[in-house]
Amino acid sequence: PPRIVIAGAGHAGGSAAAFLRQYGWKGGIALVGEEAHPPYQRPPLSKAWLKGEASAESLALRPARFYAQQRIDLHLGIRVTGIDRAARQVQLSDGRALGYHRLILALGARPRSLALPGAGLAGVLALRGTADADALQAALGPGRRLAVIGGGYIGLEVAASARALGAEAVVLEREARVLARVAGTALSRFLEAQHRAQGVEVLTGVEVEAIEGEAGSVRAVRLRDGRRIACDTVLVGVGAVPNTELAEAAGLDCAGGIVVDLAARTSDPAIHAIGDCTQRPLPLYGRSGRLESVPNAIEQAKQAAADLCGRPPPQPEVPWFWSDQFELRLQMAGLAFDAHEAVIRGDAEAGGFTVFHLDPEQRVLAVEAVNAPADFMAGRLLVAKQARVAPELLRDPARSLRDLAA
Ligand code: FAD
Q1: Cβ-based burial of 280 (10 A; exposed 0-12, middle 13-18, buried ≥19)
Q2: Which ligand 1 atom is at minimum distance from the Cα of 294?
Q3: 239 vs 109: CA distance, rounded Å
Q4: CA–CA distance, 188 with 153 (Å, rounded to integer)
Q5: Are 357 and 345 in contact (CB under 8 A)?
């Protein structure tokens, strides 16, 4: 019987295997993953898991028995080392080859590394998998001092978790504000203030020049302006690089990610690609981009599984993302490309607020909510509908957003 091979057993790959069965695929499914674990969720690794508040079972994407029940063959601890498109087979790190009728690449991304003096010292860490999270957790506690290079979501979440574990934390950001790449100014400023109130030192507009050590272990981070930030652990959180090497070597179109369409098809009709490793269309915004989120991994897993089972592609979704820091629940939807105006509803002092990003025609492009789940849900609908709404209406607490979105 024909077999689908899924290369990469992370959130996207694991979800694709499940959707294939749900949509009626009767042939074989082989899920090949480099990590030793069946597919698991990464979001808790910087949040609940790091703080010791989540069990190993709660990380798993599906219970262990699911794979046998669904006839999904797991090949774990095994790397795909090559793709032979002509022979339709993948080479594995254990020397075997696995033939495929269709191949799904779900290879994810890896932390970007910094080519800095001292980057190889003990105590300089990155965070992608459970082993990374365990090493980080062991380094955090009372009397410890963490320096986070990069004020992105992962860096901020780890700084917040470090405080919860009793460690000191300092965030070093090169841009003028944290989250400069992914959030609006209001949200950045709010989070900087929250982190400072919780005892995190936040330095923006600073460039790291070197990491300094003693006897092979990190002792400080040196900034270009000459300042020396003492620490015993460094987390490098400066973004992720898509794992495109296998696809490039096989001659698939790649451009900052493996290029796919809305059915997750690559430039080879026998190969799909999904998740963090892809460059995908963003139909709401008339361009393409690479999304690094669980909702995107699931959406593209559905696209690939639907296509492979002869179903029509699912309706495109609004990109969305969440983050937890301290007692804050952040939810973001849409992308603020070409945003013209930011409208704030609610009151940060009172606990919850939402930022709407509008284009010059007052179309809602994106929404960012802090402890405001109902406004987030309504805002996401406004983004999906590309609704045009006057700022006064969005700002007016007496107006129901649900009615505006209806
Ligand atoms: P991955 O989950 O990375 O899976 C790819 C898998 O492929 C990996 O297991 C990798 O080892 C394997 N692999 C790579 N190359 C090969 C090969 N050659 N052969 C075999 N296997 C291979 N998203 C959110 O939406 N909300 C959050 O709050 C959030 N928090 C996050 C916190 C952390 C600390 C991290 C690291 C990520 C977070 N994300 C969050 C992002 C989210 O986890 C990713 O977008 C998601 O995991 C992407 O799924 P994926 O399957 O594409 O990649």
Answers
A1: buried
A2: 25
A3: 9
A4: 11
A5: no
Question: What percent of the chain stands above pLDDT 70?
Answer: 100
Residue 157's alpha-carbon distances to 220, 229, 295, 330, 388, in angstroms, are: 21, 20, 19, 11, 33
**Residue 346, both tokens:** 């609610």
Using an 8 Å Cβ cutoff, are 319 and 297 in contact?
no
Residue nearest to atom 47 of ligand 1 (CA): 11
Q: Closest by alpha carbon to 7, among 100, 95, 70?
A: 100
**Structure token digits, residue 298:** 């699931």
Compute the residue count for the chain.
Answer: 406
Predicted pLDDT at 406: 83
The candidate with the shortest Cα–Cα distance to 273, out of 1, 2, 98, 13, is: 13
Give per-residue pLDDT as tens, 211-236: 999 999 999 999 999 999 999 999 99
List all residues whose CB is within 6 A of at least one atom of ligand 1.
7-13, 32-35, 42-43, 45-46, 79-80, 106-108, 127-128, 154, 243, 246, 275-276, 292-295, 297, 321-323
CA of 213 from ligand 1 middle (Å) equals 31
Atom of ligand 1 nearest to the CA of 78: 20
Q: What pairing do the DSSP bridges indicate for beta strands 233-236 and 320-325?
A: unpaired
Q: Which residues are CB-neighbours of 40 under 8 A, at least 6 positions away?
A: 59, 60, 61, 130
C-alpha 55/C-alpha 48 separation (Å) is: 9
Those residues whose C-beta lies under 8 Å from the C-beta of residue 264, and which sit 6 or more positions away, are 104, 272, 273, 274, 278, 280, 300, 303, 304, 307
How far apart are the C-alpha atoms of 348 and 371, rounded to whole Å? Answer: 9
ipTM of the complex: 0.99
Nearest-angstrom CA–CA distance, 129 and 39: 11
15, 41, 42: residue to mutate for ligand 1 pocket, most atoms within 8 A of CB: 42
Please tell me the distance between residue 228's alpha carbon and the centre of ligand 1 in angstroms.
33
At 101-138, the pLDDT tens digits run 999 999 999 999 999 999 999 999 999 999 999 999 99
Would you say 33 and 8 are in contact if contact means Cβ atoms under 8 Å apart?
Answer: yes
Q: What are the two backbone dihedrals, phi and then psi, of residue 135, each rounded to the nearest 5 degrees?
A: -65, -40
Q: Contacts from 58-65 at CB under 8 Å and sequence distance 24+?
A: 59/130, 61/11, 61/14, 61/15, 62/14, 62/18, 62/38, 64/38
